[in-house]
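Lab channel / #folding
Pinned by the channel admin:
"Please post every new chain as: sequence first, then the structure tokens as a reply. Keep commentary short and put observations after the output so the thread stays searchable."

First post following the new format, from NK:
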Amino acid sequence: MTPVRVLAVASEVYPIVKTGGLADVAGALPLALKAHGVEMRTLMPGYPDVLRLLAGAAEIRRWPDYFGGPGRLLAGSHDGLDLFVLDVPHLYDRPGNPYVTADGVDWPDNGVRFAALSRIAADIGHGLVPAFVPDVVHAHDWQAGLAPAYLHYDNRPRPGTVMTIHNMAYQGKFARELIGTIGLPWESSFDVHGLEYFGGISFLKAGLQLADRITTVSPTYAHEIQSDEGGMGLGGLLRERASVLSGILNGIDIEVWNPQTDPHIAYRFGAQDLTFRAANKAVLQQQFNLDSSDEAPLLGVISRLSWQKGLDLLLEAIPTILAEGMQLALLGSGDRDLQDRYKAAARANPGRIGVMIGYDEILAHLIQAGSDALLVPSRFEPCGLTQLCALRYGAVPIVARVGGLEDTIVDIGEAGTSGRDATGFKFGPVTADAFAGSLRKANAAFHDKPTWRRLQLSGLATDVSWRNRAGDYAALYRGLMASSA
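Reply from TO:
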């Protein structure tokens, strides 16, 4: 097996900094790749939390002026992850969310902040760190999208490049004048075959245009984003580059998400004995001020509250949930109007609907361990991770028939034709009526105990780990190296 060195570039990495699924992937994939002969180091920004956790990191390089202020490149490790950290205080030493102010507005210099990250990635690709010269630079989402661009326009021998799309909705769009500030050649880069995007520039478009290979996080989403609607302005480009585009399903860290050892749940359990799920359900009902009842199906939601996630459709489904005798426990934050409407629904239906605005990792684990079903009614979903966790914990997923949800859940009506055991419920089209119908179908199955137990056991037997998925990435890297040799 040929050893491979890969530099991953990501704006967030679990368990250090997390706002979404990107962090989970960036944190789990390097560990899973070790078994496939891939040495991956991850480059990330030096946010305050990162520097606190890597207090003993070694300084590799120092610059008196890096994109407008002093900067350093550090190397260190945390929780088994080998990291490079770009410590540039005037760009990254800010409280709270990595991307937005306390008011929820994008930092006005985000273009410069993440161009700086991509520039140092390209420099490492060119050999800035002699002890680690990568064969491949793997950029994640728009924040790293300029890494393939810098490597391309440097016009020097370079490593292979991979661009992974975690969500097409976030494209890193900026004014074209930024090109001069970030050190790219205006004449060649501000072009339809470069960064140019409807008169401005897009970091994601740059990566998709100039990377050697493009991946996204499920096969169905890889197909969807080649459409005009799913591509969100970049469908034509992705159709042109379809020969280098592939979908590789995400996995989850099955050590973190393991009901047999999980320290965050009230009672641990395994596939051989689901008895303690009822005890976790009772604790979850207590946490959300829901009526204590084992016979009422408890629906769990762990989600950003947004149109994309279909959380407005769930509000429309509340009459169905109440009429069917179900309960709802929702954990999430996002759109202020949706937050207010959910809080109002909880006030109007005490004991039946519980809502907690925000995010709490411990509570997220308890929802997986205690809810009977997990709802993911997304209008589009590149992969989705919560439904994979649900399978691991015996919570039956009820999901929209889109993206990675389509690829990871086997509908109760499809089991016979697919040759696979059913693991949940899928609905389409993504409408309030179709969602309500799926909830009614799930409620009927819940009260048929043998059927529900089969769904749970099939989910628990599903491989949701990174083991095979990491092998697909390793094969991609090796294929890229072979093609450029």
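NK: The first strand starts at residue 4 and ends at 9.
TO: also worth noting, The two ends are 16 Å apart (CA to CA).
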